[in-house]
Amino acid sequence: MSFVNLFIKRGISTSCTRFGKRNFRKFPIYNKRGSKIFKEMRKDPNYDLPHDKRGVRDVGYYADDGTFVAIPEKIPELIVPDLKDFPLKPYVSYRTPDVMQSEFTAEDLFNVVYAPKIAKDFKEGKLNEDGMPLEPSPEEKMTPEEARIKAEQTGSDMF
What does the angle CA 127 – CA 131 – CA 136 come to, to the nearest 5 degrees? Predict the structure, then answer.
């Protein structure tokens, strides 16, 4: 057996002390927790520094002339109902029974939205030979393109 690599050697570090463990200039810390050097650099308006936004997304963009353009669809809107005379309290007991509910499918959606009108038209005889309604509702008159555009509009999920 050869023990070539088991020799222990003493070494001296010749690197500069400023590259040691306590040199925080190597690690840029931005925003509020920055070093004194960083805070001095931040005072210069022409110096381009990265900005940590901590997960907050922009609600617009900067135009070529430097003005900020806000996009209304990106601005979060909080809708809070008035609970002044609401009888329930914001506490749920741990003793409440678990509610088991099946997955909401397309068939369930059809049964809730379209089936009552189809059944009503059938009972009243308002269907032609092809099964199409004689008096269609505004939703039944829409083309697939119009329905897709309406579904993609802001606030279309509110009902």
Answer: 55
Q: What is the pLDDT of residues 134-148, one digit of tens each?
A: 888 888 888 989 988
87 φ, ψ (degrees, to nearest 5): -75, -25
SS3 139: helix
Helix (H) or strand (E) holding 108: helix 106-113
d(CA 28, CA 146): 52
Q: Note whether 38 and 30 are within 8 A (CB).
A: yes
Cβ-Cβ contacts under 8 Å for 25 (sequence gap 6 or more): 18, 35, 37
pTM: 0.34
Task: Name residue 21's amino acid.
Answer: K
Q: Could you report the per-residue pLDDT of 18-74, keeping only the tens digit for each?
A: 555 555 556 666 666 666 777 777 777 777 766 667 778 889 988 889 899 999 999
